Amino acid sequence: MKKTRDLKPHIGIFGRRNTGKSSFINYLSEQETSIVSDEAGTTTDPVKKSIEIFGIGPAIIIDTAGIDDEGELGLKRIEKTKKAIDLIDMAVLVISGNIFGEYEMDLISSFKKKKIPFLAVHNKADEESIHPALSLGIKETSGKPVMEISTLDPKYREEIIKALNETIPETAYKNKSLFAGILKPKSNVLLVTPIDSEAPEGRMILPQVMALRNVLDEDSICVTVKETELEDVMKWGIKWDLVVTDSQAFGYVSKIIPEDTMLTGFSILFARLKSDFFSYIEGTEAIGRLQDGDKVLILESCTHQVSCDDIGRYKIPRWIKEYSGKNIEFEFIAGFDIPEDEIKNYALVVQCGGCVVTKKQLQNRIQPAIEAGIPVTNYGMAIAYMNGIFERSIEPFKILV
Which of 233, 250, 269 corresponds to the end of one domain? Predict the structure, then answer.
């Protein structure tokens, strides 16, 4: 399954073949969003649909293949269905005909392992009602009552939407400010945004745009400048409450910004917003403990044209080698296909800022490494550490501890 580039909340629809998963999506969206057929296995690979859900707003629904698919191709479809769990903020488990067994238990187990809240629905109530014993058993297993619905009857739609709103975490669709708890109204914030070969033509990258908007949301004052004009701006004599820079410019910017001025990076702001911030802090110092022959995994969240200036593929590996003075081996993964059983082979995992993925997706991505005791960090923290300003770069966040 292709990785997502959409920051909307993601809801996955799971279940056996022919339980009415696609019908459920059409019922929810009130349009023919997914192909519906009486033939089992109509949905093959997971497919994303964008819909509007009252109370949640724009959301991405992921329609998955039946978890009970068969044959060699069916097994591959099941594998993709399981991988879709890493992309979602909540799940809907669709059953019908009072059929509930190992397939459903395995899905529930995966939801719980990934800390994915889920809703169980018994579809096709017009054909057969759920047995009370099964309803009670699922509630005891999942901790939630089963909703009984029929996608042929519109009367259930309002109840379903209410249940979705009660199940999905608010953090999935309500974006927290990058500067929450850091800025006071009327703060002076300086954003240093280099325009280099990696900058998109005619626009700014998402972290820069979000930072600019969030400064305004905090009722603060924002000035944006390229690093080449930074010294000119500093001559204005303004006392900056916070300076945020692209992490690649840390070395240069930190020499110009006075020591008594708080300085951090866009990537570090995103680490606090989306990921396990304190695991990153603990893991960053592992850069200083790397030895000859160690393997470092670089995780990218998006695919892009790789150039000789690429931050993840070339610059960070080069800087780590130069800083450590060791012969380090690097591997790169773009997307979510991370072999969890191999994660223990790495001495360090370096994750990109994750600006194009959701908070849950990023957390799921690094969790196997954290659980295996492998140090994790991100681009911004790693670069700050290698420039000798790591403590300074996380100073703005210490007021929150």
Answer: 269
